[in-house]
Structures are given as structure tokens and as C-alpha cells.
Amino acid sequence: MDTQSLIAALSDDIALHLFPTERALLPNLDDVYELQLAFYENLILSDAELLRNGAYFAKVGETYTRHFLMCTGEPLKLPEHSSSRLKSFFEKNIFRTGYATHGLFPYRGKFHPQMIKGILNTMGLKPGDIVLDPMMGSGTVPVEAALMGINFVGVDASPFCRFMTQTKFDALTMSLARVKGALNNHEEIFKYFQKQVGKPAPGSKARPRYPARGYMAVMEPAAEYVTSGDRKPLSKADHETANTYAFLLLAYLDSAGYAERSGRKSPLEQFRAVLERYVFVAEKIQSVLGSVESDLGSGQILEGDARDLPLDAESIDGIVFSPPYSFAIDYLANDSFHLDFLGVDSVKLRGKMIGLRGRKLAEKFTLYQEDMSKVLSECARVLRKRRFCTIVVGTNNNQLSKVLGVPPDEVPGLHQLLVESAVPHGLRLVKMLSRPITGISNTMRREYIVILVRK
Ligand SMILES: C[S@@+](CC[C@H](N)C(=O)[O-])C[C@H]1O[C@@H](n2cnc3c(N)ncnc32)[C@H](O)[C@@H]1O
């Protein structure tokens, strides 16, 4: 090719071949799987749908997308002493994570919410449909679905996950007056929570009583309701009280974990910094939602077992979930402080947790496969025919190579095992995308987005 032709080739842009000029991509889109999801969104969504629910576009014509508006504006307030690595992570991922109430608790193994938005669009889900995440963890799917006007059912075996997800969902709409007021009483609130740590012993639900004075008058009645998981209908005022308590408690549990890990600030200072950030995040998304037609999806957030879902057959329009990556993360050990605080019997819970059942690695792996087959069977049962079930999963090759006695590069990926295991339940593979895992502390380098269709 001569120089003139080379210059002409270099002046071209791949996006111009894939997308109409009036649909402008977001700037930080740099992985191939993101381009693929953007490509599907462009094929599937009308202009109005792209503006309302697109994940990878900044503008249609002169109008900004809702995703762009939710992610930009005043940047997320990180604690002053945050490392430059953390700051650059949030800058790089401005459109991927941390927006709305997704950033409220750093749960391990959490989805990138932007990817979930792209996947929900790719599965053809529309406002008013119902999506299920049978292992919702920190609630990325319920919160993202709600933002898109899609209804949801979120299930997790862990009561802490139920509490966390409910709190993140409620924070999208709750009155923030009292949590803002709490910033002036943060020491009293911190001490209140601190006194509750370790009491009662795990397994018991009884809580010590304190005289209901001042701010404590908000805390005491709400504590019982929020931690019991009993979501009986409440009056508007009581609901607000419960929301305030839950919001403060999530900030406290988050800061306690943070203080343990970093130790740079006192736990009290840490609590104040986390609470300030929570209030900032909630105010920001509420102000965006206030400026657009706010039509949030609604649904159920349940503590339950993905192997035995409390749902009717063919009642769900789409499923998205990420199972534990065999036994790569011990979610109970990670969350022990939080579970103890909620009075959860961790021994009993361990028996339900997929990936944690069994003693030796080989037994754990066998039980994992059996459990996942039951989950897939349940997914097939509750999903409507011709609808999609998407699984995001990666493999810890080093761990599995020990169990299977084969070299790490010959280990079958969990994505392959799950695809095979899904077939007898009537779930067939339609598409597989792969995405790199970039976190420094993660030993896994790649995970898969597996899209199955129900026969
Ligand atoms: C990889 S995490 C999911 C993270 C989630 N996608 C998010 O965005 O936060 C897997 C989840 O499966 C849950 N889990 C394990 N066994 C379960 C079971 N039998 N039923 C329901 N959930 C279970 C764990 O508590 C954990 O939260």
C-alpha cells in the first residue's frame, strides 16, 4: 500500500463501520467483550431504548444517555488517604462500576454493573419484564434492573446479602434527611453499633436493649426489623426509620471491614468517611433520578436456596447470575464479622453454601457439580420458554488442577462444565463471550459470559 492509502486507512474508524454516527460510544470502552455487547445493543435497541437503558453509549444525536448522566458529574468521593491505585481504578472504571448505589459495599466477586446492563439488553429484557438472580450476592442485578425499569427477583443463601441488597435498593429512593443528620451524631451511632458487636452470640436473635433516647430512638425499633429479615408491611414513617437504620448499619459494617484492612484511620474516623461517601452516592443518584422520568423496577429480595427456588414454573423472563467459582472464595469466612453481627448461625449456613460443602477438595468439587446441576434445573423450571439464562463464571485452574490431578492448562473450565450440565435441563448454548479479569490480587485472568436459551 502506498503512503496515501495508508493515511486514508488510518483516518478510518472501526466504530464508523459498526455504529451509526449519531450513536456515540462511551469513551472508556476498551475491552473486546464491551464492543460486542455495544454491537448487540445497537442491533436490539431503538433510539429511545438506547437513551433510557443503553450501557455503552454516551449520546444519541445531541441527547446524553441515562447511563452517561448517572456516571458523570461530581466524581465519587473517595477517602482522602485512598491510594493512587484506588483512585485511578475508579477513574478508569467511571462508566463500569461505582455509579448509583452499586458502590456501597465492596463485595468480593461482584459484577460490573455496566456489563449487567449490557447483558440484560442483549437478552431482550424490557421494562416491566422480570429478571431473576438466584445468587445475587451484593445485589448488582436487582439494583441495575430497578434502574432500567425491569422488575426483579433476587435470592441469596446469605442473610447478609439479602440485607445488603435490600439496603442498596432502598437507598435509591429513601428519604436521606435522617442519614444526613446522622453525620452530626456519628460518634453516638458508632458507639451504639460497636456495643452490638459480638452480642448476641451467633445463632441467637435476642439483642440487648438500650434506653431509647435521642438518636437511639431511631435505632432500637429499626434494628429488630432490619436484622430479622422479616419484611412485614410497615407504615411510611416506620419504613423510613428502618431504611435509616439499615443505611447506617451497612456503612458501619463496611467501615469495620475497611478499618481492619487498612488501619490508617481510627475505626470512628473510618465510619465517618464511609458514611459521608454513602450519603454523597445516594444523593447523587437520587438527584439524577429526580431529573428524569423515574420509573424504577420493583421486586423481591429474598434469603433462599438457588437449588430450591420459591418461584412458580415459567414465571421469569430472564436469568443472570454468577455462581461461586467452585471453592475459590469462602464467602462465609469473608463475611463472618457481618454475619455474626446479624446473629446468623454460620455453621448451619455453611451446609447451604455452594462451593463450601464437603471436607476434602475432591469431595467439595463433586458436591459443587451436583449443586450446580440442581441450580440449572431450577433455572430451567422457572424460566419461560425461549427466554435466556446468562451465567458469568471463571475457573481457578491452579485449584482445580490439584483436585483433578491434571496440569493447570488442561483443566476443563467451569464454563464448559456448566454448559454440558445445562443441556439435560433444556438449556442450550447460544453465545459465549469472554472477558479479561484485570484486578491485581486476582489469580484468575479470564471469565466467561455464557448465554443459554430455554427450549
Ligand atoms: C459470585 S457471588 C455473586 C456475586 C454477585 N453477582 C454480585 O454482583 O455481587 C456468589 C453468591 O452465591 C451465593 N450462594 C452460595 N450458595 C448459594 C445457594 N445455595 N443459594 C443461593 N445463593 C448461594 C453466595 O452467598 C454468593 O453471594
Describe this structure in words.
- With 455 residues, this protein is an alpha/beta fold.
- 47% of the residues lie in helices and 13% in strands.
- The protein has 20 helices and ten strands.
- The protein has helices at 3-11, 14-18, 32-44, 47-53, 66-71, 84-92, 113-122, 140-147, 159-170, 177-182, 186-196, 216-228, 236-262, 267-291, 331-334, 336-341, 346-350, 361-382, 397-404, 414-422, and strands at 23-25, 57-60, 63-64, 130-133, 151-156, 299-303, 316-321, 383-394, 427-436, 446-454.
- It has a seven-stranded mixed β-sheet, with helices on both faces. It has a three-stranded antiparallel β-sheet with strand order 1-2-3.
- A hairpin with a 2-residue loop joins strand 2 and strand 3 (63-64).
- The structure holds S-adenosylmethionine.
- Residues 107, 109-111, 134-138, 140, 155-158, 161, 305-307, 322-324, 331, 352-354 line the site of S-adenosylmethionine.
Q: Which key terms come to mind for this protein?
A:
single chain; 455 residues; alpha/beta; 7-stranded mixed beta sheet; binds S-adenosylmethionine
